[in-house]
Amino acid sequence: MPQKTESKKMSRPNLRDSIYSLTVEELKEWVKEQGEPGFRTSQIYEWLYQKRVDSFDDMTNLPKHFREKLKQSFSITTLQTIVQQTSQDGTVKFLFELVDGYSIETVLMKHHYGYSVCVTTQVGCRIGCTFCASTLGGLKRQLEAGEIVSQVLKVQKALDETDERVSSVVIMGIGEPFDNYEEMLAFLKIINHDKGLNIGARHITVSTSGIIPKIYRFADEEMQINFAVSLHAPNDELRTKLMPINKAFSMDKLLEAVEYYNKKTGRRVTFEYGLFGGENDSIEHAKELADRIRHLKCHVNLIPVNYVPERNYTRTPKHQIFAFERALKEEGINVTIRREQGHDIDAACGQLRARERKDETR
Fold it and tell me: Can you tell me which residues bind S-adenosyl-L-methionine (predicted)?
């Protein structure tokens, strides 16, 4: 039986600090409260997301008194670049500083189909996965939707110089997106809206470590966003070792939630499966995994993990990765191996922040 889902009503504070945090509907309501005509909403969104201005003073078709109201009520969130690393394959990793001094990572990846941006949703993470640098130092705070939006805009402004654009977004950076659900959902609505960044739903992917109540809620949103689950193991014992969240949300319950998502949306789920040498990468593990998920509408994305100095896991040898893939295919499971990117820079999630901001990750 599916669990009772949470209410869909947004529980975000009425007044946000960043103008980028407001969905079209929220901004429209605020504009109305100011006694301004409704078309002001479209004008503001155009200045923010099409013309990409950095100041309310640049919104020259707005009356001066209204621009003053905007300045009194909101900020235009800015991110300062602390470090920018560029890989030989074109991957660019940014370490950005927020207004309160905390830092976050954002990654720009170049594919044959265009540019993809991987965004962060939290400063740190409380999930505690034993292979991940993002959780070092725990969770410091949640990001406001506008701080997530700003990551995409910051990268897009860099691409504007060569008349290129961000064509897809993955929410797989530092943090657990479903642990910051309301802000994550607002972010999705803002970047997807045709007056916002107009990034198609099928070009956006959100990933979770498995917060089950939020999976049911996300299914009920009935969005066309791509959905991924970090699985990394075929059984509870091993998954609990890798991902302590499994103590609260067992694999049986997790896969039951995924099945609900399948039936509710008609869409498949991607299982992210990082391969750790000698831990979860045997042929027996592959066969066990196939047995657990074959009834689901799903796809497995095998991830050759990047080495993290603060963790003890090593990468599975290439021949074993191919053997694991072959074993899944023989069991009838759809599977791919994620293309390696940024291997010559601090590519692992949270790794650059851990190196540059040790005070945040102790």
Answer: 175-176, 207, 230-232, 306
86 and 66 co-located in one domain: no
Do both 229 and 342 map to the same domain?
A: yes
| Pair 173, 144 in one domain | yes
Distance of alpha carbon 190 from alpha carbon 20, whole angstroms: 8
pLDDT band at 310 (very low <50, low <70, confident <90, very high): low
pLDDT classification of 218: cutoffs 50, 70, 90: very high
The maximal CA–CA distance of the chain, rounded, in angstroms, is 68
Instruction: Extract the annotated binding site for [4Fe-4S] cluster.
Output: 125, 129, 132
Residue 50 maps to which CATH number?
1.10.150.530
Same domain, 106 and 239: yes
Specify if 114 maps to a domain. Answer: yes
Which pairing describes strands 226-230 and 204-208: parallel, antiparallel, or unpaired? parallel
Residue 8 lies in a domain: no
- Residue ranges making up the domain that contains 36: 23-73
Active site residues: 105, 349
Q: Is 128 part of any domain?
A: yes
Residues 6+ apart with CB under 8 A from 359: none
Output the known binding site for S-adenosyl-L-methionine.
175-176, 207, 230-232, 306
Q: Are residues 167 and 199 in the same domain?
A: yes
Whole-number pLDDT of residue 345: 55
Tokens representing 49? 């997301």
Over residues 26-53, the mean pLDDT reads 97
Per-residue pLDDT band for 309 (boundaries 50, 70, 90) equals: low
Mean pLDDT value of segment 93-111:
94
Identify the band that residue 282 occupies on the pLDDT scale cut at 50, 70 and 90.
very high
| Residue 132 pLDDT level (bands cut at 50, 70, 90) | confident
Domain membership of residue 10 (yes or no) is no
**What's the structural domain count of the chain?**
2
Asked if 301 and 268 count as a contact pair (C-beta separation under 8 A), the reply is no
Average pLDDT, integer, range 117-146: 93
- Domain containing residue 215: CATH number: 3.20.20.70
The DSSP code for 199 is -
Q: Are 132 and 349 in contact (CB under 8 A)?
A: yes
- Which residues are known binding-site members? 125, 129, 132, 175-176, 207, 230-232, 306
